[in-house]
């Protein structure tokens, strides 16, 4: 017995407008719930990249110390600074060789070098490579030039300058000079009498989010390679606490764009996260290489 093949199709109910709107609303809620987790994952990746930048900088400074027996000087007025002296140990030989160290930072022969970016000098949570606003030689009002900025700074201690003969100088990087306020060469690790695990070397420098690229004494985010000021140096201690946010208007301090912490590479090569709420006195102990203070690592 055969049965006829039915040509009737069962009807399929379509989504109503209300059902469609409900589905869209649910998807929107799920996206809203997932977005913070995605942002946190991205920030964690950026923080790790920043930490790696500091790690590489610490290794480069150790290699400099192994090669020359001392750290680079913080700067030499109007000439390239410690970052330039470290470049070849950051696998930047070509850029290092482009610098004419017999001529100052502002000289036309150093234009290409001062405007060349190095990826390791930028925190991905903050910004990418950018040029400073025009700077002038020793604040003379002439010879205006621009240069690449950076997001990391050398530790010049708890005082107010990097002069080797200053009673308040406790940092790791000091001004170059044959007499007076400077010293002929940089410090060595034996000068870190508080211990290499108790003293930080380089950290994230604070830059007011409204003052990107602005140099000078108040907003030192000028050319990163410029030894004419404190663009790539920072102080820390009771009068120079860590920035609490990107909008902090304080100058010459360390600070991060990672929420709640600031990253530092210590003299022993380790990279650590320091809470921005750290006690200011304890922060000073970490910045000073020779104060004889014992630091509690439970910050």
Automatic annotation (TrEMBL):
Tree of life domain: Bacteria
Entry's transmembrane regions: 20-38
Domain DUF1559 as annotated: residue spans: 39-279
UniProt keyword Transmembrane helix present: yes
One protein family per Pfam: N_methyl
Record's signal peptide: none
Coiled coil: none
Family matches, as InterPro entries: DUF1559, N_methyl_site, Pilin-like, Pre_pil_HX9DG_C
Keywords tagged on the record: Membrane, Transmembrane, Transmembrane helix
Listed name of the protein: DUF1559 domain-containing protein
Organism per entry: Blastopirellula marina DSM 3645
């Amino acid at each position: 017995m055969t049965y006829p093949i039915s040509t009737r199709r069962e009807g399929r109910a379509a989504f109503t407008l209300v059902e469609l709107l409900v589905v869209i609303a649910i998807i929107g809620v799920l996206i809203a719930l997932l977005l913070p987790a995605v942002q946190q994952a991205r920030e964690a990746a950026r923080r790790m990249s920043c930490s790696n930048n500091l790690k590489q900088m610490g290794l480069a400074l150790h290699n400099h110390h192994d090669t020359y027996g001392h750290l680079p000087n913080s700067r030499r007025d109007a000439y390239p600074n410690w970052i330039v002296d470290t470049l070849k140990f950051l696998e930047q030989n070509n850029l290092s060789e482009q610098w004419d160290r017999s001529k100052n930072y502002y000289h036309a022969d150093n234009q290409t070098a001062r405007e060349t970016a190095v990826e390791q000098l930028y925190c991905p949570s903050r910004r990418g490579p950018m040029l400073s606003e025009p700077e002038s030689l020793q604040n003379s009002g002439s010879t205006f030039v621009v240069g690449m900025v950076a997001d990391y700074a050398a530790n010049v201690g708890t005082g107010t300058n990097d002069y080797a003969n200053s009673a308040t100088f406790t940092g790791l990087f000091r001004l170059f000079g044959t007499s007076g306020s400077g010293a002929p060469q940089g410090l060595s690790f034996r000068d870190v009498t508080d211990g290499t695990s108790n003293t930080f070397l380089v950290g994230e420098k604070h830059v007011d989010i409204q003052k990107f690229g602005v140099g000078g004494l108040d907003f030192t985010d000028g050319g990163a390679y410029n030894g004419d000021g404190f663009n790539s140096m920072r102080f820390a201690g009771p009068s120079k606490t860590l920035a609490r946010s990107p909008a902090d208007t304080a100058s010459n301090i360390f600070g991060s764009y990672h929420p709640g912490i600031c990253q530092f590479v210590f003299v022993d090569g380790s990279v650590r996260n320091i809470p921005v709420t750290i006690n200011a006195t304890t922060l000073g102990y970490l910045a000073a290489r020779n104060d004889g203070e014992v630091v509690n690592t439970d910050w």
